[in-house]
Structures are given as C-alpha cells and as structure tokens.
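Weekly structure sync, notes
Attendees: PL, DS, HV (note-taker this week)

Item 1: HslU--HslV peptidase ATPase subunit
DS walked through the input record. Source organism listed as Sulfurovum zhangzhouensis. Sequence as pasted into the shared doc:
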Amino acid sequence: MDNLTPKEIVAYLDKYVIGQKDAKKTIAVALRNRYRRMQLDEDMQHDVVPKNILMIGSTGVGKTEIARRLAKMMNLPFIKVEASKYTEVGFVGRDVESMVRDLATTSLSLVRAEENEKNKEKIAIYVENKIIEKLLPPLPAGASEQKKADYEHAFAKMQEKFEKGELDNLMVKVEVPDHPMLSDDGLPPQMIQVQESIVKVLGAYGKKGTEKELSVKDAKKILETEASQELLDEEQLKTLALEKVEKGGIIFLDEIDKIAVSSSAQSRQDPSKEGVQRDLLPIVEGSTVQTKLGMVKTDHILFIAAGAFHLSKPSDLIPELQGRFPLRVELNSLDEETLYRILTEPKHSLIKQYQALMKVEGVTLTFEEEALRAIAHYSLTANEKTEDIGARRLHTVVEKVLEEISFSADEYTGQEISVSKTLIDEKIGSVVEDEDATRYIL
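Item 1 (cont.): predicted structure, written out as tokens:
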C-alpha cells in the first residue's frame, strides 16, 4: 500500500476519520511524494527531502486518529511519540534519538513479518515435521526397508491428524529460548550501551534455552519463531529494515506544543523545553543515529508534528525548528453535525462498537435517530461548558447513557433494547445543565 494515490489515501482515511479534508490532503500528498521520490534517479533522490508537516488543532479533533489509521494502512515503519516525554541531553529521561531507535525496531519487526509471510509455507512444514518427529519414536539407524516404509506410513497418518488439529492437546517437549528481555525505554544513551553489552553476555549463556513440556497447540508458536530464525538470514533482515527505515520511515511527533516556550511567559521559561527543541533539530534536519540495525540516516524520514497550541503558538518554537516543518495544516473544531457523523458514519463507529459488544450478550441494541442527535448535542454542550476534548466526549456520554444497560446485559438476553431521546435526557440532561457536575461526571 506504499504506492497509493493521494485520492486513495484520503478515501481510506474517510472510512475512519470524519472531516478534516485539508489535513488528509496534505498528508496524502506528502506520502505520495515518498513513492514519487523512489522513482527518480539516485542522484536526484538524495536532494528531494521530505516536506515535514505541522498539524494544529485542539485535542480530540482527529490528529492522533489520522496517525493511528496511517500506521495501519502504510506498509512503512511508523511510530507515534509524545514530544513532552523527551528531555534535554544531560537530564534524566528519554533522549530524542531514542525515537529513531524505536523506529528502527519497528522497521525490523515489519520486515520480519513480511519475510515470515513470504516463507509461510516453509515455516508451516518446518513446524509440522518438528512436532511429528517429537511424537513418533525415532527410526533406528540401519532400519530395514520395511521399517522405513512403516515409519513413512505412520508419519503420513500423523500429518493428516496434525492438519485436522487432532494432535493439539498432546504434550511435546520443546526448547523455550531464555533470551533476556530488556527494554531501552526511558534510558539515556550511555545506559542503553551498557544494556546491549549485558544482552550480548547473557545471550551467550541463555542461547540454549530451557526444555519445557507444552501442548502441541502452544508448541507451534515456539517452533514458528524457531523456524523463522532458522530460515531467515538475520543480517539480511537488518539490511532490508535499515533501507526501509531510511527511505520510508515516518515519525508522528505529538504534543510538540508542550516543548514550545510561550513568548508571554519569558520570566517562567523552562530551559529544558528549548533544549529538547535544539536536540530534536539535527534529527529532523538529517543526522546519523546509532541503532540495533547500525547507523540510521534521518535525512529522508518524514516527520509529522501535532499540537493543540492553546498556551503557545507555532511561532514560539525556535525558528530553526519551525523552518523544518514547512507544511502547516489547521484542523477544524468539531460542531454538532460533525460529532453526529463521527458517532454514526465510521466503519467501526462508537455506536457500532457498543452494538457489537451487546450482541455478545445476546442483546440487540438500537438507537433512535433523535437519541443519536441528542448525544451529539450534549457532547458539544459539555465541550463548550468545560474543557473541549473533541470527539472523546462522545465516549464519556455514551458510556454514561449505557452504563446500566451494560451492567445488567445478562438480564436482557434475547431481547431488543431501544435507546430513546427520553433516556438520553434523563441520564445526561441534568448533568450537562450543571456546569460543576459536567466537569466531574462528563
């Protein structure tokens, strides 16, 4: 899906995100330009740098949802990070280079999954053979032709049973790897290097693994990983992942407004915020970062930044960083009609989700048209009276309305429950009228 046209990208996003046409178009063109660049000659490719995007809009208007859907849609390395989680070099906390390391890890996982899919049949055969060999007594050396024929017949019979799932409950002994599971999340670069050294040392001792008795069903998962390691060349995977991350990586940098220093608060400036911006600048401009894949060049990674900018403005970012986000798009606030559409139109809208959840209990949940309009109306009113949290308010309102029905769902098995405007008014109306109640309940 990495060569979709801008119209196809927008059409895909339209299934899940209502409105925000400008943001969708800008991102669609930026993504298409990644594909266009790869069709150019190598010399020109180097000079065509990605046009990074700054999305400006209140919380709950669709910034994160667009990013989340892009992550599912794109066959490219993609991560979403919060700028506010990073600290200036020299302070305790995550350094900005860790986002590139995270992206590299994502790229490796993506490439590994792609290669596993390509080798799906080989992996399945490997797993099947391994399990049957563990279940059948080994064929002794120098066995007669008759013994060999009997073994092959028994093996074929076991294959039939394996394919039908008839062996799933049998127990077999498999080797479970003892690789140390360590994370670099939240660690400064010096500690990450120490951790990688520990992994190498422990890996030398823990490579053999521990033999455990598991059901065939559970053993399949362990052996699939083993097959993947046997069949795939780890160094080749890293090379492919490195190429993928450098040519098509995307980093969604949320809450970038949290590291901006408001010009109206000069006396209360947080020096570490500007420090994070200065640390971020070389990565966005193009630098080289040490990762598990090797040295990753960030020159052609696409950065999409987003922020509400309530207490600060984009111009409060340092000028150099502003210049690295030439494409700016403002997302619209949500009106009542948009909230109604968000509630009903997306492929897996909130209403469809609740209906599916109740269906599990054997309850058919329906909503009157007036009830849906009332939910949108009360959500907008609550946003206006208190903090505007956009579409997230719909979750709060719907949960409050359906709380009792959801709690007692087992009593309504086989029945149809219709949610009326009267029920909405009863559950939400008085709460929304009281501003203090709205703040604490909705």
